From TrEMBL:
<feature type="domain" description="Tyrosine specific protein phosphatases">
    <location>
        <begin position="252"/>
        <end position="309"/>
    </location>
</feature>
<dbReference type="GO" id="GO:0033550">
    <property type="term" value="F:MAP kinase tyrosine phosphatase activity"/>
</dbReference>
<dbReference type="InterPro" id="IPR029021">
    <property type="entry name" value="Prot-tyrosine_phosphatase-like"/>
</dbReference>
<feature type="region of interest" description="Disordered">
    <location>
        <begin position="339"/>
        <end position="360"/>
    </location>
</feature>
<feature type="region of interest" description="Disordered">
    <location>
        <begin position="1"/>
        <end position="26"/>
    </location>
</feature>
<dbReference type="GO" id="GO:0043409">
    <property type="term" value="P:negative regulation of MAPK cascade"/>
</dbReference>
<dbReference type="InterPro" id="IPR020422">
    <property type="entry name" value="TYR_PHOSPHATASE_DUAL_dom"/>
</dbReference>
<dbReference type="GO" id="GO:0005829">
    <property type="term" value="C:cytosol"/>
</dbReference>
<dbReference type="InterPro" id="IPR036873">
    <property type="entry name" value="Rhodanese-like_dom_sf"/>
</dbReference>
<feature type="domain" description="Tyrosine-protein phosphatase">
    <location>
        <begin position="188"/>
        <end position="331"/>
    </location>
</feature>
<keyword id="KW-0904">Protein phosphatase</keyword>
<keyword id="KW-0378">Hydrolase</keyword>
<feature type="compositionally biased region" description="Low complexity">
    <location>
        <begin position="7"/>
        <end position="21"/>
    </location>
</feature>
<dbReference type="InterPro" id="IPR000340">
    <property type="entry name" value="Dual-sp_phosphatase_cat-dom"/>
</dbReference>
<dbReference type="GO" id="GO:0008330">
    <property type="term" value="F:protein tyrosine/threonine phosphatase activity"/>
</dbReference>
<dbReference type="GO" id="GO:0017017">
    <property type="term" value="F:MAP kinase tyrosine/serine/threonine phosphatase activity"/>
</dbReference>
<dbReference type="InterPro" id="IPR000387">
    <property type="entry name" value="Tyr_Pase_dom"/>
</dbReference>
Length: 360
């Protein structure tokens, strides 16, 4: 097995966790040659590799298979104070068995790369920095780079990184959205409120689980998963047909989802909100409901849900939509203190004509 290389020279000064000595600072790195070997390895390495690109988005070349680290303010604050879970940085970091290569934005103590490095080292991950400049690698190793954004690359390639995490073998190169590349969790269903449950596809198709928790109302936040028990008159469904991509405006369906949850509550029934993996689309709907029903800010609602399930990871655009929704709920309150760096802004979203909402 190829291990991350321990270099005899440092790249530059990097802040360290309390478990590392000054001699360890910046001493782990991989070269472009090693990264080429990693990406072309198939499954011959026993531990999966995850590549985190901490650079700002732009026209510069991208490493094939890299996961872009884009954190909205609610997560960036947690990164700053050292409480952000690795799975919130990237859902593929659900186990410290992964070996991580960081493509740094800079090597300054306040850089995003340095903060991510510290979090992962504290959680016992094996972490290294890419030692070579990506622009130079695009010329010396053109097969390593792609001008397409990392999010697009991940959906196109059957990479070792996606096929070995948690033993999950992907055949989803044609599927839309990074959420589909995540393995189902065994933690579901997650009880958020006495009547509100978060789940995934496995939960939605398990009638015994639904009956166990008194779930009779189900919100299916996918365009393609079936409403498994639509023929059973005991179950009532609301489908929100969106994919886990930046092209869908999930916020437009928040009112329908909230009304459906309140209907279940009024009938003393439990309700399940699910998507495929239970980490992005369904989490977004649950966060919107928590803010509305409990008058919590996004950060407070996020904390509630994070304590129940540490693997939640709404995509960057859905977090932007939740931020906008928060502004409509608290129009006269000063809730927003912009952070510097990656967490300072969230993108607006477009509405897809292919998405829709239906209930019965």
């Amino acid at each position: 097995m190829m291990e991350l290389e321990r270099s005899t020279s440092t790249l530059t000064s990097i802040p360290t966790s309390s478990t590392m000595s000054d001699s360890d600072v910046g001493s782990y790195r991989v070269s472009g040659d090693q990264l080429v070997d990693i990406l072309s390895s198939g499954n011959r390495f026993s531990s999966p590799y995850v590549i985190l690109d901490c650079r700002e988005s732009g026209s510069h070349p991208m490493i094939r298979g890299a996961q872009k680290v884009r954190l909205p303010s609610v997560l960036y604050r947690r990164l700053n104070n050292g409480t952000l879970s690795p799975a919130s940085i990237c859902p593929m970091l659900n186990s410290s068995d992964c070996q991580v290569v960081i493509v740094p934005d800079s090597m300054s103590p306040n850089s995003l790369a340095s903060k991510v490095f510290n979090i992962l080292v504290q959680r016992q991950f094996n972490v290294a920095f890419l030692a070579d400049d990506v622009d130079e690698l695009a010329h010396t190793h053109p097969s390593l780079c792609n001008v397409t954004s990392p999010e697009d690359i991940v959906s196109e390639l059957k990479l070792n990184l996606l096929s070995v995490c948690d033993g999950y073998k992907t055949n989803t190169s044609s599927q839309i959205g990074k959420e589909k590349n995540q393995p189902p969790s065994k933690l579901f269903p997650v009880q958020i409120l006495p009547y509100l449950f978060l789940g995934n596809d496995e939960t939605a198709k398990d009638k015994s689980q639904l009956e166990k928790y008194g779930i009779r109302y189900i919100i299916n936040v996918t365009a393609n998963l079936p409403n498994y028990f639509h023929d059973d008159p005991r179950f009532h469904y609301l489908r929100i047909g969106v994919d886990d991509t930046c092209s869908h405006n999930l916020a437009q369906f928040f009112p329908d989802a909230i009304a459906f949850i309140e209907k279940a509550r009024a009938e003393n029934a439990s309700i399940l909100v699910h998507c495929w993996a239970g980490i992005s689309r369904s989490v977004t709907v649950c966060l919107a409901y928590l803010m509305h029903a409990t008058h919590k800010t996004l950060e407070e609602a996020f904390d509630i849900l994070l304590k129940q399930n540490g693997a939640i990871a709404p995509n960057f655009h859905f977090m932007g939509q939740l931020t906008e929704f928060e502004r409509t709920l608290f129009p006269n309150e000063s809730l927003f203190t912009p952070d510097s760096g990656m967490g300072s802004s969230v993108p607006s979203s477009t509405t897809s004509s292919e998405s829709g909402c239906s209930s019965y």
